[in-house]
Write a sequence for this structure.
């Protein structure tokens, strides 16, 4: 039985989620050596400035490349949360931007982190996508932080490496803080055994 | 009967084809208003530094998001040409980098353009991906040049807009030159009627 893990990253057009999807896919696929498929879809529905990327990670060749029932939804604004929550697995993890999502739904597992505010504190609100990736690595275990760092550094513009490294680490640290408060049994973390 | 057009962009890891795929998808999906799915896959096979992106463009919602039998293969090096030629439709268009692909196969329709050399002449060999996009717009008609320009300018690093605009136009100009020499009937261009 092969292991398959689906992550959807959603927000508005300027929040860098397509790049985040590419980085996450390269971290898991090229650096962690898993099978990965990364998809963006555009169409009439996407013309309102919404943006979403999907990453499917597996320990075996991937038959269907799109997310079917995501294990994780990262929502960086209210609209994308409202639009995509219905697809999330019932026991899936919802991760939202604490500053940009106001109405958190009554979902089983929700974690809110101030990605955008944290990125702003580092000097660049645009790095919220990288902060979020750092948090996702810790919260899901589906990608390793060293691989994520390598993928980030290979993709971000020259001269922003240090900022992005800090953004990644800040997101990971915030997620670790949250985990210390969350009962471990509730986390949909990938088991090491599944990843072997 | 809906219209579906599949483009595969392939080369080595540093040639910017993932970014080219994202730009092409955004041009067709967000700016031209078509249904688009854009995919990258990574896995053990992709660890040798190969890189490929697929863009599926349609006038209707896309059921299967990956390229099945590409209508166009852009190959920026010999390895990716050798690896992916077998998938290309028999009457599909093969577009290669004239400087980096040495052995051009006996395929029905092949166009070779010096993308990398042209980008180098503009001052940045890394812009070969954008030169190639300009050529693909003219050769396939699957995306419009103004949409491509808008998508390029939204994605490339600040300060490189003018270079990338020139790269796009250079690719389009080179393709137009080639078309003047090619019998029109042989081109797998999308008909206006199909796009209506």
């Amino acid at each position: 039985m092969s292991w398959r893990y689906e992550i959807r990253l959603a927000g508005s057009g300027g929040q860098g989620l397509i790049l985040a999807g590419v980085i996450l896919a390269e971290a898991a696929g090229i650096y962690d050596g898993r099978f990965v498929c990364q998809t963006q879809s555009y169409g009439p529905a996407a013309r309102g400035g919404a943006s979403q990327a999907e990453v499917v990670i597996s320990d075996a060749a991937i038959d269907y490349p799109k997310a079917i029932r995501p294990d994780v939804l990262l929502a960086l604004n209210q609209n994308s949360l409202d639009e995509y929550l219905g697809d999330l697995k019932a026991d899936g993890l919802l991760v939202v931007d604490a500053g940009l999502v106001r109405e958190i739904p009554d979902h089983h597992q929700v974690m809110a982190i101030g990605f955008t505010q944290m990125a702003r504190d580092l000097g660049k609100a645009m790095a919220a996508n990288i902060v979020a990736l750092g948090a996702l690595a810790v919260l899901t275990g589906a990608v390793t932080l060293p691989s994520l760092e390598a993928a980030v550094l290979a993709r971000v513009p020259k001269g922003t490496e240090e900022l992005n490294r800090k953004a990644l680490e800040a997101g990971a640290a915030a997620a670790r803080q949250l985990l210390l408060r969350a009962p471990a049994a509730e986390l949909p973390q990938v088991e090491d055994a599944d990843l072997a």
Summary: The first strand of chain A starts at residue 4 and ends at 12. The interface with chain B takes residues 13, 18, 22, 25-26, 28-30, 33-44, 46-47, 61-62, 65-66, 157 of chain A (CB under 8 Å). The CA atoms of residues 91 and 108 of chain A lie 6 Å apart. The mean pLDDT of chain A is 90.
